[in-house]
Amino acid sequence: MRKIMNTAEVSENTIKLQQLGAKVQVINSTMCYVNFELDGLTLQYVYNLNRRGNYFLERTKPYPLAIAEFNSENDLVRLIKSDLQKFKNALELPHIEKYITIAKLISTTFSSFEDTFLNYNIPDEKVDKIYKKILALNMEIEVIQDLAKQVSQNEKTE
Q1: Choice among 2-11, 56-65, 139-148 with the minimum mean pLDDT
Q2: 33/149: higher pLDDT
C-alpha cells in the first residue's frame, strides 16, 4: 500500500499537469478518516483540513457522497452527528439494505454514464431517452417525498 507522496513526486506531478494547461495549487493539509459501526453497517467519512482551516467532507461508506465544505470544525461535527442520527433512524426501517443497494447502484450508474458519454458518440435519441428516464426518476422521488411520512430526527443526548 502506498503511504505518502514525497515533495519530488508532487513537483513532478504538478509540472505534468501544468504542461496539460492546468493551474495547480499544492496545499499542505491533514486528511482524517472517521468510522462508525452501527449494527453491521459501517459509516465512513473522510475530511481534509487545509492550512486555511477549511474542511472538505465526503461520506465514503456505505456509499460515496461528496457532502460539503465547512469553515469550522463545529459545523463539520454537527453535520456528521446529524448524518449519524439519520442512519441510526434508518437502520430501524425495514428496507435499509435495499436503500443502500440502490444508492450504490446510482453511484455506479453515474460512473458508467460518465464513461459512456466521455468515450462514445451517443446518438441524440439515446441521450434524450436517458434524460427522460432521469427526469422521471427525479419526479418519482419527489412524489414519494410528498406522500411518505418523514422519519423522526430525534437526537439522543449522551
Answers
A1: 2-11
A2: 33
Q: Is the pTM of this model over 0.90?
A: no
Are the C-beta atoms of residues 115 and 71 closer than 8 Å to each other?
Answer: no
- In angstroms, the first-to-last Cα distance of the chain is 38
Average confidence score pLDDT of the chain: 87
Q: Say yes or no to pLDDT of 142 above 80.
A: yes
What percent of the chain is modeled with pLDDT above 90? 64
Helix/strand/coil for 141: helix
List, as one string, the DSSP characters of 53-98. --EEEEEEESS-EEEEEESSHHHHHHHHHHHHHHHHHHTTSTTHHH
Q: How many CA atoms lie within 13 A of 121 on its CB side?
A: 0
Residue 44 φ then ψ, to 5°: -130, 135
Q: Which residues contact 151 (CB under 8 A, 6 or more apart)?
A: 86, 89, 90, 93
Which residues in 118-140 are b (16+ Cβ under 10 Å) and which e?
Answer: eeeeeeeeeeeeeeeeeeeeeee
152: DSSP letter: P
